[in-house]
Write a structure and sequence with these properties.
125 residues, 38% strand, elongated
Length: 125
């Protein structure tokens, strides 16, 4: 009887690990592992400057890629060329493996007086 309890305890420990492994394997097999997103930071910031490949907001540099979604104040998609600077925006971003902050989405909330869509130089840090 003692041996039976040991086997049952071993099965109760091993079974959840096997089930978890099978679930993770099936997600990867069907390409769904990308659907599970880790927590993405999001903050309201003032975008102070922009270039083709980055913005400066709250004195931090953020990389902008062709995958970055940018929405104007009316929720219409725009290109970075049309992003008014300075403006207040909600910025969703992630930190890349090598430390760079990568913008996923910019949602313009307020355009400040004197804002321009011209390219601006990033302010020095």
């Amino acid at each position: 009887m003692h041996r039976t309890h040991k086997r049952m305890r071993s099965l109760l420990v091993i079974l959840p690990m096997v089930c978890t492994g099978l679930i993770l394997y099936s997600l990867k097999t069907y390409g769904m592992e990308n659907d599970i997103k880790p927590y993405q930071p999001s903050a309201f910031m003032v975008i102070q400057s922009k270039t083709v490949h980055e913005i400066v907001a709250s004195k931090k540099r953020f990389a902008v890629t062709k995958e970055t979604e940018i929405l104007d104040i009316n929720d219409n998609p725009i290109k970075i060329q049309m992003l008014p600077v300075p403006c207040k925006a909600q910025i969703d971003y992630e930190q890349a493996a090598y430390g760079e902050l990568l913008v996923l989405r910019i949602k313009v909330k307020e355009v400040f007086a004197g804002a321009t869509i011209d390219w601006t130089r990033p302010s020095p840090e």
